[in-house]
Structures are given as structure tokens and as C-alpha cells.
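User: Second chain of the day. Same drill as before.
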Amino acid sequence: VDTQKSTLFGWGGYFIRKSVGFSMYRGRIERHRRGSAMYKIMIVDDDPTSLAIGKALLSGEYEVLTMKSGLQALGYLKEYDSPDLILMDMVMPTKSGQDVLKILQQDPKLCNIPVIFLTSMEGRNFELECLQLGAVDYLQKPVNAELMKIKVRRYIQVVEIKRQNEFLKRKLFELKTRVNKIFDVALAALDDKKDQ
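Assistant: Same format as last time:
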């Protein structure tokens, strides 16, 4: 049986190289990445000026959604597809950024959305506070345009890597399934020869 498996592995490897072609997956990954829709950024802030500035800075590279309150953001997230990243003011009426983040963390469908807090407050260690709350980062208001773009790009790249990893996992599972079928057919053919 071990000899059979060794021989079959050689056949299977040849089949995979010739018929499946591992190199094609690299091309599929690239097409998957380039063919994806624009990454979606949600900005949540009760200040219209901050919303306008954020949208102006990011709309050239991303699809930007603007929400005027934490409640509006939560309503959208319950009804529509999740954004890839959320920029959210910490201090808002009714539902603060901290309140919204706690709700997101309790929802299995929303808990993995990265959140960057925006704050105009000074005099406290906001970076530590934001990280303790579960945000991935924070930006001081008024925001530095280049710093905002750099931080957004950094976390979007993380999202892109995760998407590519999920794509690879699916393809590897498909490949494993096909290889197992090849071995099953080949083993059955060898068994038939033995019986003859």
C-alpha cells in the first residue's frame, strides 16, 4: 500500500503540475485583488465640517460613507454590508464613540471591523485609552491629512491581506478535494488490475 501511495503521489503531483497549474493561483489572487470593489470607509462624526474634510481626503481612493451620529451608524450597520474600516469621533451626543464600539464588539458580524477613534480632546493618554477600548488606533483633531491617509492605508492593507488569505484557503481546500479524488480513482484502478 505504501508503494502504491508513493507511486500515486508521483502521478498526482504530475497531474497537478500539468492540469491544475499552481502558478495560475497567483494570477487569480491578483485578479481577485484588482477586481474587488473599492474598499469602504465609514466616518462617524456629529461635526459636519469634520465629515466633509474626511470625505474629501479619502474619497479619491475609497468609497466613503458619512454618518452624523452613532445611532445613524448603528442603524446602517444593521441593514447594510459592513465597511472595511470605521473612523469615529469619541465624543458625540446620545451614543458616544465608546458606546458604539462596545455595541460592535458584542455583535459577531461587526466585531472585527477595525475602528480608528477621532478626538479633539487633549491632556490625556488617548492612544492607550483607545487601545484599551478595542480601537486599532486614533487620530487627533483637527486631523493631519497625510497622517490620516497613512493610517487608513495601513489598516486597509491588513484587510486586503485577510481577504487574500481567505481566498487562498478556499482554493487550497478545492485543490485538496481534487487531489483526493485523483488518488481515489487511481487506487480503485490499481485494485481492479489486481483482481483481474
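The chain is about 60% helix and 10% strand.

User: Great, on to the next one.
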